[in-house]
């Protein structure tokens, strides 16, 4: 027989046999799912053995076909990120065919070795391990909880952090975590006002952060910044850890930790650019309300990462960079936003954005009964705010500047630009929740503190003239 014919027959036979767990499905699950779907983690069941996977074959086919799992929301072609957990069309087809054929196990000799997960610090032993002061109780069921924990750093000088690694104390209930820095003392006051460890903080930390250290979600690797870059932790700042808890079906407690590795200095300056709108007004029943916002960069920056944020009614997100030459650089796109799977996206390679680049945000909200995430039935009018039933729309961009000395002037230019745009738009903050209004007052203090009191009298008066009438 002709050898080409023989090879063709072998290929037909292999196709007819269909995918098996040991040869086709196990490698896929081990690479993309086992980080969460293993004993002791946040996922409700393990997928390490054939028995575990086979009894859920139809479920695996269904949730991957809808791209509900793995939980990776960023669309391909709109930014390339680290630690992407996106299945290909071919991988989804393998799971569907395997389930359709009765989930065969296949040849045991073809099964790969199950992955081994490090129990210690993946990025090396940190210089400081910061643990929440008390165990936090999570009830057996009910709504998800968002709690902020304040840890004093007691730094008598500025410090530089180039590695951040989070260890969930109880991975069964810790859904994700975000790390903020607070040099104002406001987080301590919020903590002192509540009897339980930390304070409730759905939607945001309830403060104007003086900086940030990134975030964590199951399956994410520790943040290790590129050479020459480091987070600046201001003298006297506190670490504020915001943790999203998902009840497991029985009472639990959690006491999580963050490991920090320091470096002597940072040759580049790291800071954040906030794009967003407080002019959110979503009429009841409106299934497609578009909110836009933009900001123009006052100097060249190196874009490191992006964190989109909204609440429960948002359904689509897109952030683009319109360069001075007219070229559009897509930064991120999410077509099925889910508040429960928000995260920080770090670019595989940083993106250079020149001075004059306009960063544009376009979010779409669905305030109709057709939105399964709508917390109100029947729908009600929704405006900007911090509560679960309010809405937000922001994109936080982590950027690097040539040196640390560039950070404060850059922040100053961005903040004044925000004020000018708000004045042009005629923004009215009178309807904001009390905490948000208080945050605006804190922003004035933080602005002064970040500039060593060097904000000139005319600029400060202009800032206060804009904000003070809207705090009454």
Question: What does this molecule look like?
Answer:
The protein is an alpha+beta fold and 472 residues long. The protein has helices at residues 3-17, 21-32, 50-54, 57-65, 89-100, 186-192, 407-425, 434-450, 457-467, and strands at 128-131, 136-138, 145-152, 159-167, 174-182, 199-200, 211-216, 223-224, 231-233, 238-245, 252-254, 257-263, 269-276, 281-282, 289-296, 301-310, 314-322, 328-334, 345-353, 358-365, 382-383, 393-401. It has nine helices and 22 strands. It is globular and about 75 Å long. Helices cover 23% and strands 29% of the residues. Mean pLDDT is 84; it is low at 1-16 and 429-436. Strands 1, 4, 8, 9 and 12 form a five-stranded antiparallel sheet that branches. Strands 6-3-10-5-7 form a five-stranded antiparallel sheet.
Q: Strand share of the residues?
A: 25-35%
Characterize the main sheet.
5 strands, antiparallel
User: Roughly how much helix do the residues carry, as a percent range?
Assistant: 10-25%
What is the tally of beta strands? 22
Low-confidence stretches: 1-16, 429-436
Q: Mean pLDDT, as a whole number?
A: 84
Rg over CA atoms, rounded to whole Å, is: 24 Å
Distance between the termini: 90 Å
